[in-house]
Amino acid sequence: MSDDGAATGDDPATDDGAAVVAAVEAVAERIEDERDHLTQLDSAIGDADHGGNMARGWAAAADAARDLDDPDPETVAKTVGKTLMGEVGGASGPLFGGSLVFAAGELGDGITPESAVAFAETYLEKVEDRGDARVGDQTVVDALTPAVHTFKKSIEVDDLPPIEALAKAVAAAERGVAFTVPIRARKGRASYLGWRSVGHQDPGATSALFILEELLVVAADRLGVDVPETDAASPTIPDDDPDEAAEDGPAGGADLEGD
């Protein structure tokens, strides 16, 4: 795919689909590499199975994506989402996989800046709905929200090239992951710990960051450019008093802490 969203091959859908397959393979490898780290994070505030569940699910998703014949982006995304739903245990399967199935429809006409923004927004919306979580609850939403908002603003307001917008989104997600450490968990098993959850990094948010980082690397490779060096400050992440922001989140909801 070119920097403006146009594919470089004879068949744009096939070319974009191959890029998505490559991204899924890269994510699977990264999650496997980070399996122990994710398990350690989940051991502190969950049931210590997030690393194994995610590694198993993404490995199966990569296999399923490779088995597709001349796939288009929507088909790859739906296949990966359904595989994650079937292979990843706990809440992470429906959150990471089920949300992907819904968002995949935004890629029906291929990957463009516009469809990428629509995909990201739909994915975030479905994750929020499924987990009833918002920024400040110490969940994957704390990483996804600044990433998606930053990506959208970079494309639609700042008119940046998609690769630069994605780099800024990754930087925003990294900041969101850091934000989960000093706040109290309001959702999932981690919320049962009360104030003892403070000081622990959310494993689901961390997984989301790893996924975004690999998407950026693969996108840069497909475009034949270096990964942009950038940072991003997202106004969607409260700066002054993270605990006060967390108190504003809704109570209840599904387990989001990263099963």
Could you describe the 3D structure shown?
There is one protein chain. This protein has ten helices and no strands. It is an all-alpha fold and 259 residues long. It has one domain (12-247): DhaL domain (Serine Threonine Protein Phosphatase 5, Tetratricopeptide repeat), CATH 1.25.40. The two termini are 34 Å apart. Mean pLDDT is 83; it is low at 1-9, 191-197 and 234-259.
Compact description:
The chain is an all-alpha fold. The chain is 61% helix and 0% strand.
* Element string (H = helix, E = strand): HHHHHHHHHH
Please tell me the CATH architecture by its name.
Alpha Horseshoe
CATH class: Mainly Alpha
Weakly predicted, low-confidence segments: 1-9, 191-197, 234-259
Tell me the quaternary state.
single chain
The whole-number mean of residue pLDDT values reads 83
Give the amount of beta strand, in percent: under 5%
Structural class by secondary-structure content: mainly alpha
DSSP strand count: 0
Number of helices: 10
Q: How many structural domains are formed by the residues?
A: 1
CATH fold call: Serine Threonine Protein Phosphatase 5, Tetratricopeptide repeat
Organism: Halorubrum rutilum
InterPro entries: DhaK_L_YcgS, DhaL_dom, DhaL_dom_sf, Dihydroxyacetone_Kinase
Domain DhaL: 18-217
GO molecular function: phosphoenolpyruvate-glycerone phosphotransferase activity
